[in-house]
Amino acid sequence: GNSVTQMEGPVTLSEEAFLTINCTYTATGYPSLFWYVQYPGEGLQLLLKATKADDKGSNKGFEATYRKETTSFHLEKGSVQVSDSAVYFCALSDLGVISTNAGKSTFGDGTTLTVKP
Amino acid sequence: DGGITQSPKYLFRKEGQNVTLSCEQNLNHDAMYWYRQDPGQGLRLIYYSQIVNDFQKGDIAEGYSVSREKKESFPLTVTSAQKNPTAFYLCASRGTDTEAFFGQGTRLTVV
After folding, report:
1. Hey, are the CB atoms on B104 and A43 less than 8 Å from each other?
2. Separation in Å, CA of B63 to nearest CA in chain A
3. A to B CB pairs, distance under 8 Å
4. Which of B40, B99, B103 sits opposite A43 (nearest CB)?
5. Which residue of A has its CA nearest to B41?
6. Is the pLDDT of residue A98 over 50?
7. What does each C-alpha distance from B95 to A50, A112, B28, B63 come to in angstroms?
8. In this complex, which of B41, B96, B100 lies closest to A105 when CB atoms are compared?
9. Cα Rg of chain A, angstroms
10. Predicted pLDDT of residue A103
11. pLDDT higher than 90, residue A94
12. Residue A10 pLDDT > 80, yes or no?
């Protein structure tokens, strides 16, 4: 079945530091890949996505590239801010396909990021 | 505004009671999902529905029940059979070729 493995946390950085959160996946077929962010006490919000190999998703200074050869979708940001402190989830799903496995998203366990001023 | 709404935000349950968590969406999405999140952990799928009047068990369905009588609504009942119901519950919906959209969550506590 599908699975997502992401870097264990927590991660603590100083403001303006470079961020990488690693994510690798196992999937049958050609899934779409996502990064979601969760602020304390709230639901998940989509941060960025990529729907095919070599696509780069980007939003709010965050980037991730869909690497099929290494089955990875690492999240990066060049200069983090205190407001980026949150839990980040890597996920995959088969978009637009109706089957037994379709529609369900598979999530990593989440990585907690704390950015200190 | 289109979105997905969960209510209540906080819910307290006594031992042996059933409680129902509400999830409503006006995004015209066919698929809806319930997840459970425990502190410091990822999301675990409880139930999902890809179409009205149909739903399937997820990975941790025991002690929970759902219904999907309307496209917009996917309520989750936490029954007395669920031995450890204290958790944060998230509802999500998804249209064809889109990512999942999440509600703000319901925090359930057993008192």
Report:
1. yes
2. 20
3. 59
4. B103
5. A109
6. no
7. 16, 28, 7, 28
8. B100
9. 14
10. 64
11. no
12. yes
* Dihedral sign for Cα atoms in the order B100, B103, B109, B110: negative
Select from A29, A25, A23, A24 the least CA-distant residue to A101: A29
Closest CA to A85 of A8, A14, A5: A14
CA A42 to chain B, closest CA, distance in angstroms equals 5
- CA distances, A98 to each of B27, B35, B43, B53, B75 (Å): 19, 20, 22, 16, 22
Phi-psi region of A79 (alpha: psi -120 to 50; beta: other; left: phi over 0): beta
Among the partner-chain residues A34, A98, A110, the one whose CB lies closest to the CB of B99 is: A34
**Confidence class for position B1, pLDDT limits 50, 70, 90:** low
Q: Which residues from A are below 8 Å from B97, CB to CB? A: 95-96
**A65 to each of A59, A62, A79, how far by Cα in Å?**
12, 11, 18
| pLDDT of res. A101 | 52
Q: Which residues contact B68 (CB under 8 A, 6 or more apart)?
A: B32, B49, B51, B52, B53, B54, B55, B74
Query: How close, in Å, is residue A55 to chain B by CA atoms?
Result: 16
Q: What are the pLDDT digits (tens) for B34-51?
A: 999 998 778 999 999 999
Separation of alpha carbons B92 and B102, rounded Å: 4
Contacts of A101 in chain B (CB under 8 A): none
Residues of B in contact with A98 (CB under 8 A): 50
Residue A43 in tokens: 């639901």
